[in-house]
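Technical note accompanying the year-one report. For the benefit of new consortium partners, we illustrate the data format agreed upon in the data management plan: each record pairs a sequence with a structure-token string. No post-processing was applied to the example shown here.
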Amino acid sequence: MTDPCIPRDSADMSEASAAWDIVAVMATAVAVPEAARTFRDDVRAIGWTVGVGVGAGVLSGYLLVGPLARLLMLLLRVTSTDAVRGVTSDDGFTIGRFSVMDTLGLLFICATLGGVAGVVYVVARFTVRHRNRRLALWTILCAAFGGAVLVHDSGVDFVLLEPTWLAIGGFVALPAIGGLIIALVVDRLSSITAPGARMRLAIPATGLLAPPAAAVALVLGALMLALRSLRSGPTLIRYLRPTVVALAIIV
């Protein structure tokens, strides 16, 4: 989807320029008819788009990823030797001890990461339009990123816990499964063309249960809203575009 108000130069089609186009598409893909569009319409549409991402992610983190992580830790404790009991894991949890506060902390971490993942997937939906291809790439990305962050050859988790294949495989599969579930929920909610007033409020408000993720969603929503507003100012966009392109190259 292309905004006719944004000037296009056929010779300027570099990858960095394409990155700008993706952001511009995100800002305009949630549009209502231009003749009837108001600022309030933009806020409602973008709020729902981003809110679905953070809400689905936070809910999945609390209800699915967190409990699965807890079960995986329990399984590894059972399959490991008694020597690991009482040892502090790499994430600060005491192996072999069940604590309500530790469990709540784990759920909060998973919900926060899930909320951020949901927001990132909102961007992915505008980047890769083909659904099956997007889901496959997203699941692989979550597995690779989760494995890179969680799995390492030092510390306690992947040295003392046994069997090693279960520890490594479990902590690679966990973010992959979580990411896939988040993506499926986001796709399903985003397909609702006319959400009711309660749903429109309840789903995004769920993100407030993980404030860091809600902050990320707020930043993305503000960016999309700003770009929507700039549709009527092509001259300003022409000046901003080189800046965004430069930032994309640096990042």
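Partners are asked to follow this layout when depositing records. Residues 1-13, 232-237, 247-251 have pLDDT under 50 and may be disordered.
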